[in-house]
Amino acid sequence: MQHRAATPIDRLLLDPLLHDRRAQQRASQALRCLPFRLAFYRTVADQALSSNELCRRNDYRSLCRGTPTPDRIEAHWIWLIQLGVLRREVDGQGLTERVRLTPMGRTLLAQWPDEIPTATLLDRLQHGLRRRRPRL
Questions:
Q1: Cα distance between residue 108 and residue 37, in whole Å
Q2: 37 close to 65: Cβ distance less than 8 angstroms
Q3: Within 10 A of 23 (CB to CB), how many other CB atoms are there?
Q4: Measured between alpha carbons, how far is residue 63 from residues 48, 88, 124 in Å?
Q5: Which of 10, 20, 55, 76 maximizes the CB count within 10 A of its CB?
Q6: For residue 119, is it left (φ>0), alpha (ψ between -120 and 50) or beta?
Q7: What is the pLDDT of residues 74-132, one digit of tens each?
Q8: In whole angstroms, how far apart are CA 16 and each of 22, 25, 69?
Q9: Alpha-carbon distance 29 to 23, whole Å?
Q10: First-last CA distance in the chain
Q11: Kind plus residue range of the DSSP H or E element containing 74
Q12: 4 close to 61: Cβ distance less than 8 angstroms
C-alpha cells in the first residue's frame, strides 16, 4: 500500500496550530477594522454589555468610533462571535443579548497596551471581502 505525499491542503487540515494562527490573524485584522476602541473590549472583559446599553451610555464615544446604532453594533458583534473574539452571555434561561470577551479576545488585545492601531486600506479591503465572502 502506497502513501501519498501530504499536500498543502492536507497540512493545513492536519496542523491545528496553523489553523489557530490564521484564525487569530483574521480576528486581529477585524479588531483593527471595526469601530470598537480598546476601552470597549476592556469593558466587556469585566462585565457583559448589550448593544442597547452601549448606545445609551454617555461615554459611548470612548468605546467606539462613529455614532452607534443597536443594529450595526449587533452585526459587528455577530461577526466577532463568529471569529471567536466575543461570546454571548448565558443566564438561567439561555443566551442573552449581552456579550463578553473570550479568552482568545483577551490574548489578541494583550498585544495592544494603549489603543488598537488603525487598519491599513489593504486590511480594510481584505476584511470586507472576508466578512462578505468568508470562504475566500
A1: 13
A2: yes
A3: 13
A4: 14, 19, 20
A5: 76
A6: beta
A7: 999 999 999 999 999 888 787 788 999 999 999 999 999 889 999 999 999 999 998 88
A8: 10, 14, 37
A9: 10
A10: 36
A11: helix 70-83
A12: no
What is the predicted pLDDT for the residue at 37? 95
- Residues paired with 86 in a beta bridge: 101
Q: Look at the alpha carbons of 79, 84, 88, 92 in this order and tell me if their dihedral is positive or negative.
A: positive
Distance CA 69, CA 54 (A): 9
CA–CA dist 21, 50 (Å, integer): 29
Per DSSP, the residues of 5-21 read PPPHHHHHHH-HHHHHH
Residue 117's contacts (CB-CB under 8 Å, 6 or more residues apart) are: 32
> Could you count the other beta carbons within 10 Å of the beta carbon of residue 44?
24
